[in-house]
Give the backbone structure.
Amino acid sequence: MEKVKLFWKNQTDYDELAQEYGEFYVSNFDKVPAADGSYGNEKPSVQMILSATHEQPISGFSLTFNTSNGNYPTQIVVRTIYFGGENHSVTMNTDGPNVIIRYDGTRVIFSILVVVMKAKIGGTVLNYTGTYCGEVLDIDTEQIRSIDVSQSADISGTSAPYSTMNAAIDVPGFGDVMGKNQPVKVYSSAREYGWFYVNEIEKNEDGTYSIAARSSLGVLADASFNGHATGLNHDGSSEETEDTIYAINEDQFDIDLTPFSSLHHQYTQGFIPKGKSKRDALRDLALAHGMWLDPNCQFHFLDSSSNPLRIEAAQVFARPTLSEASRISDLSFKAWSYSGVSYTSGKKNTQIEYDEGNGFAYVYVFDEVTKHREVAGTAEKIEIEDYLIPKSSPSGEQDDLRDLLWSIFTTNRRIWTGTVLWTGTGNECKLGQRVSVPCADGRRLIGNVIKSDLRFSGASCVANIQVQGEYDGNIEMALPIFFGDLRVTMGMTMEPATYKAFNLDVYLEECGTSAIIITRPSVPFILNMREQLSLAINAKSDTAVRFAWALLITPTLDINAALKNSVRAIINIVNQELTVACLAKLSNSRRFKDAISLPQLNASIRSKIANSSRFNLSVTAQHLMTIGSKNTTPVKFILPITGVSSITALPKVGSSRKYSIVISQTGNVSISAQRDSSARFNLPITGESEIITLLSASPSGKTELDIQNNSAAVTMTATLTRTATVGDYDNMTFESLDEKTLGEMDYIEI
Amino acid sequence: MTGLTVNGVNYNVRVKYNSLKRSFNVLSGSNAGTNMLGEEIPDVIGTGYTFQMGIEPDPNERSAYDALYQVLSAPNDFVTVTVPYGQSTMTYKARVISGSDTYQGMVAGEERWSGLSVTFKYLKPQRSS
C-alpha cells in the first residue's frame, strides 16, 4: 500500500554537519534502558561542537529515530553553551520519532549536548538514525490534504523541463520554520518520488499551508550562468566537460558524472553565453553529448533498449490515447566557434569573452548547420542555439551527434497517453524509462516515458504518463475496446490479407439503454481491411473509426441488452456477409442530434430522421488502398466524399440532359450513376480543382438511354479519390476514445 | 457508557434500547477505476462508520436533553462523538446529517420533548487501509 509522506530537512544531515560545523560525538545508544525506560549512568547522548563561523543562523537540530521497535526518547536534557561561555540547560519531554531542539538563531552556539534521560519502552534500545541541522518534519498521510507531482522530460535533450510538486498540508506552525529553497522529499514505504525545493509557502485561511516546490533543475532555471567558453582553452589545453559542469553547478546539487565516463569525447567546444540560465547551460552540455537532462540535474543517454519494461493492460486504466507529435522538417544547429583574439566592434553574431587579467578578448563567431527533410503538411522547424560541439582529446576526433538528434526527431513520434497504476517498486513511470505500453486497438507502442504526473490517493499512486515511441510492428489482440457501454473483446493473431471492398450500413433507431457485451469471435479477421476502413473514415471521426474497427473484428456478435431510452445501431457489412447489431447510448447525444441537421444529409434523409424513429445511414468504402512499407511505398486511400459539393441536373436539351458536378478538391474523380437497383456503372474522368464538368449523356449507351427515359429517379454520385503520399499516411492518427462514448460518435460521411 | 458524550461533554440522556444501529462503508479513493481489460482497479482508502440512535431524556434532567439537541442541531461542520464500539467505545469526528424528535406537551410546568432520532456519519475513514 502506498502512503505518501513528506520529509522536510532544513539544511543538512549528520555527515555534512560534521564537515561543515565541527565535531560530533554519538555515545551510548547501544545501552538498554531499565524497565521504566530510565537510564543509569551511561546515558545515550549526542554532542555537537560547532565552529564560530557557521554561516547561517541555526534554527534548531533534530535527532531522528527508527521507531519500528516502538521505542523513542520521552525525556531529554539539552545543554547549550554559547560563545562567550554562557550556558543553559533545559529538560524536555518529547514524543515521537523526531526530537526537535529549536533556537531563535540570534546567538552563536559553541556546543550542544543532548542527553536522553528516558525512553518510551524499557528493555529496548533506541534506534538512533541521525542528526540534522534545522528541523526535520516527517509529515504523515493524515496531515497531507493534497499532493500533486508533475514530472516531465525531453528525451531529445533540446529542452530540460523541471518537475513540480504542489501540496496542501495541515501542520500547525509549519510556515514559521520552512523557507524558500528548503528541500522536501516525497516518499512512501515503497519508493522515493524525489526531492523538491520550496518555491512558495502560503498560509490559507483554514490554517493549512499550500506549498509549491520544484526539482533542483527548477532552482537552476532561476540562476544565471556567467558565461563560459568550453572545450579547448586558449592555451591549448582542454577543459573537460566535467569541469564545465562544475563551473555551472558549483556543487549546489549532486550531479552524477558516471554517464560521461563512457564517452570518448570528453569535452565540448563552443561558448555558453553570459546570462543563460544554469539549467540551460547544463542542457547544452547534455545535448552536445547526445544525452538528456532529467528534472533532478542528472544526465542520461536515451534508453533505446530492445528489452523494454512491459506495462500490462491490467495496469493501465481504460482508454489510453495515441497522438502524433508535430513533425519536424528542419533542425538547425547554431554553434559558436573560436576565431581568435581579434575583434571588430559591432560585428554581428559575435560573442566576446574577456580575459581581464591578460587584457585579451577572445572572439567567437556564429556558425550554423541545418538538416532538412521534405515533409508534407504542417511541420515544425527547430533551432538549437549555442550548440556545443563534442570533441575528443587529444586526437580531435569529433562525433557528429547531430545525426543522433536528427534521428530522434524523425522517428519515434507517436505519443501514448494513459494512466498507469504504479505498482511495487517498478520503474514503469520513471522518466526516460523504455517501456512497452498496450494500445486500445491491441497494438503495442515501444518508447520512452516523457511525462509522468503522479496522483496519490490514500492507498495508491497512479501516474498519467506519456510515452513517445513507435508501434512495435506486432498486433497483440488481447484487449477489449470500450465504447461507453459497448464493450468488444477481441483476441487473436491477425495476418495481413488482401483488402476487400465492402459497404457499411448503419441503421440507427430509438431503443434501449444498456451495456452490451460483444464476445470474441472464434475466427480470425482481416486486419488490413480494418485499417482500410479506418483510413477511409478516420478523417471525420476517431470514434467512428474505432466503432467500425470493432465491427470489423467481430464477425459474430452476441447481443445482450435491454432496450430503453437509447438508440440501436445495426451495421451491415455487406461484402463480408456480416450482419451485426449492437446497441449504444445515443439518445442523449448532442452529436447525434447535430448529425441530423448536418448539411451533408440530403433533404430526404433529414425528413426521414425528423419524422421517424428509424433511419439509415450508409458508408461506401471502396477498395483503393495498398499499403506497402510505409517509408517507401505511397499509399492510396479514399477520402470522404466531401469534395463533391453538388450534382445538379441541367435543363434537358432535346433528348439529352447534362449534369453539373462541382468538385472542390483536386484528385481523380469517378462518377457513377445508378437507377434504383440497377447495376452501377462508372464514368471515369479526371477532375481538377474547382472545375465544372458538363457531363453529357455519357459514353455509355445504357446511361444515355436511362437518362433519356427518365421515368424513375436516377441518383448520380461522385466519389473523389486521390493518391496519398507517405505524409498523408503519417497524418492518420489512431487515437482511442478519451471522453467520447459511442453515444457521442461523430457521423460517418454519407 | 452512560449518557452521550459530544464534543467532550457528557450529556445525561438515555439511548433508547435497540435503537443504536451502526453501519460502515469501505471507501474508495480517487485512484479507483477500470483497467483496459475491464477489471476494477481498487483503491481502498479506509472504512467509515455511521451510527444512528434514538435518544430519550432522563426524566430527572430534561435540560441535558435540550442542551444536547442544541449542540447536535448547531450548524457546525462536525461534532466529536463517543459511541459504543465492540467491547469499548470509539470517539470520532462525525457530521450530524439529520435529527428529529417529538413534542410531548407541557407536563408539570415543563415543555417535554423526546424521541430524538439522530444519525452521525463519518467525516473521513476511521480505519485506514
In short: The longest strand of chain B covers residues 88-107. Chain B has a mean pLDDT of 89.
